[in-house]
């Protein structure tokens, strides 16, 4: 299994407002001392039904917004509603969140930046890898449709991660 270098399907123009909100949530997380990730869940009618941001600063590394989306959806939506909902996120789901997304039967994932992009940035900056292998959604949950990344937001997301890691990143 290797990194996908091309998206399965690019983000659509209609996705952009939702992805921008995810980046805003990521910025809020960073400003609160957390890692910069933000996500939201949009129902089949286009309404945002849940949003969250990373909350790992207190030591629980499972407090990812994508996992919170899966938990919330399992508790509040029918299987049909879950299948019709789309998760939007500032960064492609990690393996843990991809699995949770698939297990609860959520619909597509749309991401602003990919796992391959984030991994490349971290390697470029000399940041040590985390304890879990970074995998694209399709390697963990091959039945979940994905769209992304969104090139228009890449520099903004990269800058947030650069700030997290104390980098001056003019990219």
TrEMBL record:
A single MF term (Gene Ontology): catalytic activity
Gene3D superfamilies registered for this protein in UniProt: Cytidine Deaminase, domain 2
PROSITE patterns membership: CYT_DCMP_DEAMINASES_2
Annotated ranges, domain CMP/dCMP-type deaminase: 13-122
Alphabetized InterPro entries for the sequence: CMP_dCMP_dom, Cytidine_deaminase-like
Record's protein name: Cytidine and deoxycytidylate deaminase zinc-binding region
């Amino acid at each position: 299994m290797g990194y996908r270098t091309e998206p399965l399907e690019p983000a659509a123009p209609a996705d952009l407002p939702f992805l921008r909100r995810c980046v805003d949530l990521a910025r809020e997380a960073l400003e609160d001392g957390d890692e910069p990730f933000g996500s939201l869940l949009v129902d089949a009618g286009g309404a945002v039904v849940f949003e969250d941001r990373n909350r790992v600063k207190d030591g629980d590394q499972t407090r990812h917004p994508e996992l919170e989306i899966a938990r919330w959806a399992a508790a509040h939506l029918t299987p049909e509603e879950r299948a019709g909902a789309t998760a939007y996120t500032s960064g492609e789901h990690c393996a843990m969140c991809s699995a949770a997304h698939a297990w609860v039967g959520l619909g597509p994932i749309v991401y602003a930046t990919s796992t391959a992009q984030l991994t490349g940035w971290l390697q470029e900056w000399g940041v040590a890898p985390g304890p879990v292998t970074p995998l694209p959604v399709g390697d963990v949950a091959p039945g979940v449709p994905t769209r992304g990344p969104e090139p228009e937001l890449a520099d903004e997301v990269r800058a947030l991660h650069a700030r997290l890691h104390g980098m001056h990143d003019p990219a």
